[in-house]
Specification:
alpha/beta, inorganic pyrophosphatase (n-terminal core), six-stranded mixed beta sheet, 16 strands, about 20% strand, binds manganese (II) ion
């Protein structure tokens, strides 16, 4: 229920106000929903006189969380991730810091009273339909101060960026935020046959929100290790600048160049073949792009004649031992992203082939890796560097067992 969520936000805000330091640390995701979430929270807390330290993370890696929770007496806010790992944060926190979670993914309740999970999933709202991370942060900001209504359009950008539409239109709380922005003259909604188009009214004219979401995704994903997220948060709050325009253009060119070089390597025989899985390892060649790019690259090649349409596709990318703004950290992990061809997509949908949401987490767990976002047709996890072949081998073992069992 929305009322219960707002009440819980109200109480959490009281707790924040009772903290001895007027300072918060905001940790947020690097896609368009995550950047808009970070922007909304930063401005809302600053308006209340808080000093805000903002950190953009591609994933809430356990090693990063352990370092964060070496602190004591701080106010920590997680946005657009961490809803599901509230029990882990509780274990790390042990009552020592005030932790707020403003996520919208499937969530679990916290077990430490000083970890307050405000994920709407725990309050009967659907995070893949009704409410984005940005809209969750917007509701929180508005509860803190009604003046934060002027960020409704930023919430709508995040909601469109995450792409959760019903019959081509935003619904529920996401729609409320968009309508508020329409009333303020910051967004225009155009109806068409397939649903609605959302347009941002800017000083330079109208900009489709879908395009602006992609702009933010490039800054946060491709530009992750080059201050892209900082530029992206600035763009959410102040609009685009010549600097941001130049950066997005450069980042798109870098992405094209690095993808083309990798395609050439695959054409030259870099794609390795196991019985059911074809795989490759870009190692550190995608740097300085973020590790979201290995998934984007798999997407780009999954329907080409580079790959065998009858096998699963897996790509590895080494995760740098560095979090921008946070410093060096020994992650020692490699990310694996998996996709399938359109033909295999049909097999999985029909239940004739194992979904990636079963295959990859199972193999990853056997190697003591970290599973986060796994769906039946797209999945990604991390394992220790050097375990790439072992992971492929585990998947083959699981698939053999499935075939003969
Ligand atoms: Mn999101």
């Amino acid at each position: 229920m929305l009322n219960v969520l707002i009440d819980a936000m109200e109480q959490a805000i009281q707790e924040v106000r009772h903290m001895p330091e007027r300072a918060v640390q905001v940790f947020h995701h690097n896609d368009s929903d995550g950047l808009t979430s970070g922007a909304i929270l930063t401005r809302a807390f600053e308006r209340q006189g808080f000093e805000v330290s903002r950190f953009c993370l591609e994933k809430p890696y356990p090693a990063v969380l352990e370092k964060v929770y070496e602190q004591e007496g701080k106010t920590l806010v997680f946005a657009d991730f961490a809803g599901r790992i509230a029990p882990l944060l509780s274990t790390l926190n042990q009552g020592r810091n005030l932790t707020l979670i403003l996520d919208h993914h499937a969530a679990e309740a916290a077990t430490d009273p000083r970890v307050i999970n405000l994920d709407p999933d725990l309050f009967g709202l659907k995070g893949d339909r009704d409410i984005s991370g940005s809209t969750t942060c917007y509701l929180f900001a508005r509860t803190m101060d009604p003046a934060n209504r002027d960020m409704a359009h930023i919430a709508a950008v995040g909601a469109v960026g995450d792409g959760f539409f019903v019959d081509g239109a935003l619904v529920s709380e996401n729609r409320e935020a968009a309508m508020e922005a329409v009333q303020q003259g910051l967004i225009e909604i155009r109806k068409h046959d397939g649903g609605e188009q959302y347009l941002l009214n800017t000083a330079e004219g109208q900009l489709p929100v879908v395009e602006f979401g992609d702009y933010l995704d490039v800054l946060g994903g491709v530009g992750y290790y080059q201050q892209g997220p900082d530029i992206g948060v600035g763009v959410c709050l102040e609009g685009t600048t010549p600097e941001s325009e130049r950066m997005v253009q450069d980042l798109r060119a870098v992405r094209t160049k690095l993808f083309d070089e990798e395609i050439a390597r695959l054409q030259a025989g870099a794609l390795q073949q196991a019985p059911h899985v074809q795989w490759f390892d870009v190692e550190t060649r995608f740097f300085p792009m973020g590790v979201k790019m290995i998934g984007a690259f798999c997407d780009a090649i999954r329907d080409t004649d580079l790959i065998d349409p009858g096998k699963y596709l897996a790509g590895f990318q080494t995760i740098p031992d560095e979090i921008p703004g946070f410093g060096a950290i020994g992650l020692n992990q490699v990310k694996i992203s998996m996709r399938v061809s359109p033909a295999m997509e049909e097999e999985i949908r029909a239940g004739r082939a194992m979904g990636l949401n079963v295959l990859l987490p199972e193999a990853t767990t056997r190697l003591g890796g970290f599973s986060d976002a796994c769906h039946s047709l797209t999945a990604a996890t991390t394992v220790a560097i050097g375990r790439q072949e072992a992971l492929i081998h585990e998947m083959e073992t699981i698939l053999e067992g499935d075939v003969h069992g």
